[in-house]
Amino acid sequence: MTAIGLALLLIGAVLVLAEAHVPTLGMLGGPGVIAMTVGTALAVTGLGGGLVVVLVAAVLVAAAGVGGIGLSIQKGTAVSRRRVSTGAEGLVGRVGVVRRWTDTAGKVEVDGALWKARADWLNEQPALLQAGDSIVVERVRGLTLAVRPAEEWELAP
Fold this sequence. Notes:
Blueprint (H helix, E strand, L loop, with lengths): L1 H20 L7 H18 L4 H30 L14 E8 L2 E6 L2 E7 L14 E8 L2 E6 L2 H4 L2
Parallel strand pairs: 3-5
Antiparallel strand pairs: 1-2, 1-4, 2-3, 4-5
């Protein structure tokens, strides 16, 4: 019985560690905590521990496991709510400046980089832009940005 208990402890520990590194929101950690709790009870029983010792050990392991998994879930959900800050998705909402503009397309500078840009594809009446105007990135398609004129509240620091 001790060998089975130790095996369950090991399997449970691996699942809890995997939960800490893979955002499964408790799908690996929950069964891991259960396996560790049962493994603790079996191992302590196999080593000749009394009922009180078994219960205390199992409750301590379960409480530590649930606390760790709870912390992992809390941190995982907090990270998933954060706004994307890199890549194409990170450009959406950024403010830039028009460098050259003709009709509905031109070049804009956003975060120090020069991009091809077009007036926002969803606007039926694209605004007329001129060099030096502030713009806001609405969408990214390939290497072309869809932009619109920046409003006053978007320019305030």
